[in-house]
Amino acid sequence: MAGGDARGRATILGRFVGRPAGRLFAHFLRESRTAAGIIVWIGIGIVLAIIVMAIFAPFLAPFDPNTKVADPETPPGGRFVMGVDRSGQDVLSRIIWGARVPLAIIAVATTISLAIGLPIGLLSGFVGGRLDRILVLVMDSIYAFPGLLLAIVIAAIIGRGILNISVAIAIIYIPTYFRVIRNHVAAVKQEPYVEAAIALGMPRRRVIIRYVLPNVAQSIPVIFSVNAADSVLTEAGLTFLGLGLPPGIPDWGFDISLNWQRFEASWWATFYPGLFILILTTALTFVGEGLNDILNPLLRKKDFKAKVEA
Fold first, then answer.
1. How far is CA 8 from CA 15, 165, 189, 190, 212, in A?
2. Does pLDDT of 33 surpass 80?
3. What are the boundaries of each domain within the chain?
4. Which residue has the higher pLDDT, 124 or 217?
5. 0.85 cut: is pTM over it?
């Protein structure tokens, strides 16, 4: 009798557990020609172009970004496509080299926040009880602070530098991963295949990794891209306030901070760095919002219902 019960549970387990990540990727490919899919591809294309620009900066930049190449505030034209800033440095060269900073901070900050927020979100949602209440209280306390204000406080304590700024930004985004993952896990653990795995005596760690994590992974790309867009703005804000990078490192936020007071005399030195911050942020937002429209199961159900009713 016990053997038949175990086989029945195993059948339930095999019926419900598939490869959600693979199915979601196949669904994304099917939806890639829709409006949401086109938006995602536009965002990905822009981000890849900026990544290529950052990688090949030594070959693409016409001048050394930290060298005076002309009279200060030379307007755009001729050799200086985007003009020269108040320090006599070529704006285009600083734009190209400056792409490396936000991309590096995106990579480090989102990796740190994902590496911390994902496991504690899985643990909190699956285990529940007192541990869940404590973690929710801590994360809600961090989440309650305005993000930029908290980043300013952390950056003022730990100092300047790409790694320090990345840590400051990562801390404010850990609760985002935690809250989304924890809520998703709390729902997934009620599914029959998870209950069957637990009833079979499977270790909790294996249940989480094998059956829970693949089903909550669909939330990660959306959170990642949205937080990446926010981190660009946060880094620019910190640098503008003098809490970002040390002088000498080309950065879009630093260039705005250096030249904004001379906007009427040399608008280009502020306009172009701000424009590229806007472009990168918008591209990452396109990716996040498009993926959310495609991968969000609630939106998929609404779209299916609308098609059926039509």
1. 11, 53, 19, 18, 20
2. no
3. 2-309
4. 124
5. no
Residues 6+ apart with CB under 8 A from 112: 166, 167, 170
Q: Which fold has domain 2-309?
A: MetI-like fold (1.10.3720)
User: What's phi and psi for 202, nearest 5 deg?
Assistant: -70, 140
* Among 44-53, 181-190, 208-217, the least confident range: 208-217
pLDDT tens digits for range 77-96 = 888 899 898 888 999 999 99
* pLDDT of 59 higher than 90: yes
